[in-house]
Amino acid sequence: MKKIVAVLLILLSFSCKKGDYVNKLEVGTYRATLKVNDSVKLPFRFEVISENQLKIFNAEEVIEVDEITYKNDSIYIKTPVFEGFIVAKIKDNRLLGSFVKTNLNRVMPFEAFKNKTRFDVIEEPMHDISGSWETVFSPNSEDDRYIAKGVFEQRGNQVTGTFRTTTGDYRYLEGVMNGADLKLSTFDGTHAFLFTAKVNDSSMSGTFFSGNHFQEPFVAKRNDLFELPKADSLTFLNEGYDKINFSFPDASGNMVSMADDRFKNKVVLIQIMGTWCPNCLDESKYYASYYKENQNQDLKIIALAFEYVKTEEAAFKNIKRLKDNVGIEYPILLAQYGSSSKEKAQEKLPMLNHVLSYPTTIFIDKKGTVRKIHTGFNGPATGEMFTEFKTEFNTFVNQLLNE
Q: What's this model's pTM, rounded to 2 decimal places?
C-alpha cells in the first residue's frame, strides 16, 4: 500500500503544474462511490453548488466544502478539518480518481456521476427496522468483540440512524432497505463506513466495512429496552492517584501544565482527542460553542491532541486547521505525534487506568480533584442521546462552578 501511495503522489506532483484547466465541476447532484473491494462499493451523495463549492450529505448532516482546486488535468477536493482529499479527472460529467489519506498510506478508487440517489431502490422493503437494536460486532472473537446499540428510523425504503457504542457513535448513516437487504453508508472526509445486512422481523446479520482496509461481522436483535453501560464508569484514576498531571507544548513551543496559575481555582475540562477523529470533531464543535458562551466564568477547557502524522510541524498544522475551521478558542496541546495508539497515550497519562476512546473528557473541580471522566462522545447523529448529554453536561458543569 505504501508503494501505491508513493506512486500516486509522484503522479500527482506532475499534474500539479500550473496550466489552464478546461473541465470544471457542473452544478447538480452526484452519486460518488468508493471501491471497497472488487464486488463492494460505498456510495455517498454530494451537490455541486458552483465549480468551487459543493455539499456532502449524510442523512441530516451537511458538510460544506470550498477547498476545491483545479491543477493541470486534475481536480482536488478537500473536506474541512481532515487530511483526506479526493483527486480526480473529469470527463463527460464523470469524475474518476482516488480518495487519499497520505499519512496513513491509504488510497480508495473514487468515481462520481450525476445521480440524485445514494443507493438504488430495487424492491419494496420486507421489514421496517425503526427502533432500537442490541448489536454485537465481531461476535465470535473474544479479543475484538464489542457491543453497540443500533437506532434507526425508516420511511418506506429510506433508512437513517446510527450505531452507538460504549465509546462513541458511527455518526450519520443513510441508506435503504431493499427487500430483506439493509445498506447504510457515510462519508465525512476521513472515515468511509458501509454496513450491509440481511434482516428479518427481529434480527439482522451483516458486515461492517471501514474503507478498504478493515471489515468485521456484526449481529443484532430488536430490543427497545437495551441500554449501553454508562460512559462515566469506563475510565478512572489508578490507585495511588488523585490528580491529573501533564506537561505538553502549545503551538508556540510553550510547555503547559495543570500546575500553571491559569488553572488554579478553576473548573477545568481536559479533552483527550485527535484532529483526525470525527467524534472528537463533534465534541469540539460543542465545546467550542459552550466555551464562547461561558468563558467569563471560572471555567477552562484544554485539549490534548494525539496525532498520527509523522512530524510535529504537520501535527500543529492540523491543530491550527481544526481550530480555524471550528472556531476553538481554548488551547490544544500536542501530547503525541507519529501515532494515535491508545496504549502510547495511556503512557503519557499513567494516572488513568486506560485511554479507551478518543475523545475522553476529564472533569476537574476548583480544588484540582477529578470528579468525573466521560469516555467517548455520542454526537448529534444520536438524536435524543445527544440532547440528554447536553442537559447532563450543563447541569454537572454548573454544579462544579457553583461549588
A: 0.89
